[in-house]
Amino acid sequence: MKKQFVILIVLMLLNKFMWACEVCEQQQPKITQGITHGTGPQSNWDWVIIGVVAALTLVTLILSIKYLIKPGEKNGNHIKQTILTNFEDAR
């Protein structure tokens, strides 16, 4: 119970810093208002960079989950099998 209380307090304190302040909110374009600090993207190239980075991050996340769940290696000595075996033992 004490651990949950501490986590709740920490999350409540972090909430203040997670969202943009009023000054930063006015400097942002509508799509990012309220969620980021500082000035928004200055040109269309900034949006291209943001899109490419977001796409790469999403692809990386999907592939890492895919290869963690189904490693494709049938050899029992492969490092991926060691990770999966330890995960199943922990359950």
Q: How is this fold's topology laid out?
A:
Layout: H1 2-18, H2 22-27, H3 44-69, H4 79-90
Structure commentary:
The chain is an all-alpha fold and 91 residues long. It folds into two domains: 1-40; 42-91, no CATH class. 67% of the residues lie in helices and 0% in strands. The model has no long low-confidence stretch (mean pLDDT 80).
Total strands: 0
Name the structural class.
mainly alpha
- Report low-confidence residues grouped into runs of 5 or more: none
**Helix and strand succession?**
HHHH
Overall domain count: 2
Q: Rg, please?
A: 21 Å
Helix content: 55-70%
- Which term fits the overall shape? flat
Strand fraction equals under 5%
* Mean pLDDT rating: 80
Distance between the first and last residues' Cα: 23 Å
**Given the structure, what is the number of helices?**
4
Task: Sketch the major β-sheet.
Answer: none
Gist of the model:
This protein is an all-alpha fold. It has helices at 2-18, 22-27, 44-69, 79-90. The chain has four helices and no strands.
Q: What labels describe this entry?
A:
0% strand; 91 residues; 2 domains; single chain; mainly alpha
